[in-house]
Design a protein that fits this description.
two-stranded antiparallel ribbon, 38% helix
């Protein structure tokens, strides 16, 4: 029996499937980006490093203790493991993390501009998508910058000159947030190309967030 008692095959399979979806949904290219899911209070599963998404099998997906020790998996974990662990450590409400290089959102990350609520679906993330301070990729410092930008109130942040990080109660929800961030980034980009977008007020975003939270209940 493994340290985690079970192989967590379903969660590791989901990471494989969502990894392929990153490419299908144009949220990254090549082997860029990474995903993880909390397994229990002491373990996460995270996509492996440098393996083409179409080739990843559940056995390749590392299971990692929260101290960074790999306990299962045949391939090294993503180099962005420190960033994922930092989010889980500081946000006990988070059960899934997705990191993308989606082009429209990353455009705003490269500009160092937060994405405001020019479309109501931004309420999936909060009142805006804030921008984290620039730090070198695959470092603990990047994780700390992402955590600072997320705070307690946001489900997404732009990683300056890098990409996007989303975090939510599970991997499914974090992936949905990643899709919404890219969609809203595209709409905001297009609206700015034509004129000056209207931004929804915070109280309306709060109402929308409550409505979204009630879906499926």
């Amino acid at each position: 029996m493994s340290e985690t008692d079970l192989s967590h095959h379903d969660t590791r399979s989901a990471i494989c499937e969502y990894g392929r979806s990153l490419l299908d949904d144009d949220l990254t290219t090549g082997t860029g980006g990474n995903l993880s899911a909390r397994l229990d209070e002491n373990h996460i599963a995270i996509s492996p490093s440098g393996v083409p998404y179409e080739d990843i099998t559940p056995a390749d997906v590392p299971v990692v203790r929260t101290d960074g020790t790999v306990v299962e998996g045949e391939v090294e974990p993503s180099t962005e493991l420190p960033m994922h662990l930092a989010v889980y450590e500081n946000r006990p409400d988070v059960g899934g993390v997705v990191h993308t290089h989606s082009p429209y959102a990353t455009t705003f990350a490269s500009l160092g501009e937060a994405i405001p609520a020019s479309h109501y679906l931004l309420s999936f993330t909060g009142s805006e998508v804030p921008v984290a301070e620039y730090k070198t990729h695959a470092t603990q410092e990047l994780g700390e910058a992402a955590v600072d930008a997320l705070g307690d109130e946001y489900n997404a942040t732009l990683l300056r000159n890098h990409g996007v990080l989303t975090a939510d109660e599970n991997l499914d929800s974090a992936y949905t947030v990643a899709l919404m961030v890219e969609y809203c980034a595209r709409i905001h980009y297009q609206a700015r190309a034509i004129g000056e977008p209207e931004i929804l007020p915070d109280d309306e975003i709060d109402r929308l967030s409550e409505k979204l939270d009630s879906y499926g209940q």
